[in-house]
Amino acid sequence: MISHLPVRPRHCDAQAMMHATRYYEYFEDAFLDWLGARGGYDRLRQEGADLVVKVSGCEHHSPARLGDVLAVESAPTRIGTTSITMTFTMRRAEDELVAVGTITYVCVRDGRAAPLPAMMLLDEGGHEH
């Protein structure tokens, strides 16, 4: 799934470049879009589950700048029993690589690790991975 997200003034430093900490906000927005294609965060919560971040990282290739519209592709790269690792590939509209992020989310219920809900195991067409 690809999300298109603009770089806004509040995301930038004095040089009109996106601050390094803001990339994670874009990854999270793209993840919520990915999750939305499978029923959404509300559905996840209705099933009694939630997600917590266990590990995250970002490789910066080219700075995002004020006015850019970033295409962020979200894709699961590892699906375990209780966790899912997502890769977020961020490009500028001209297809220039900006950053690649990875985040591992762990499913929790009642404060403990729990199996991922079936909705997270579906692809965008509704088929199981």
Describe this structure in words.
By secondary structure, the protein is an alpha+beta fold. The chain has one domain: Hotdog Thioesterase (Thiol Ester Dehydrase, Chain A), CATH 3.10.129.10. Helices cover 16% and strands 40% of the residues. Strands 1, 2, 3, 4, 5 and 6 form a 6-stranded antiparallel β-sheet that branches. A hairpin with a 4-residue loop joins strand 4 and strand 5. The protein is elongated and about 45 Å long. The chain starts with a strand and ends in a 16-residue tail after the last strand.
Instruction: List the total number of helices.
Output: 2
Fourth-level CATH superfamily: Hotdog Thioesterase
Separation of the first and last Cα atoms = 14 Å
Backbone CA Rg: 15 Å
Shape: elongated
Q: Residue-averaged pLDDT, rounded?
A: 92
β content, as a range?
Answer: 35-45%
Secondary-structure element series: EHHEEEEE
Instruction: Extract low-pLDDT stretches.
Output: none
Q: Any idea of the CATH topology?
A: Thiol Ester Dehydrase, Chain A
Query: How many domains make up the 3D coordinates?
Result: 1
- The CATH architecture can be given as Roll
Question: Percent of residues in helical segments?
Answer: 10-25%
Largest sheet: 6 strands, antiparallel
How would you classify the helix and strand content by structural class?
alpha+beta
Q: Please count the beta strands (DSSP E, at least 2 residues each).
A: 6
Quick gist of this model?
The chain has 129 residues and is an alpha+beta fold. It is 16% helix and 40% strand. The relative contact order is 0.23.
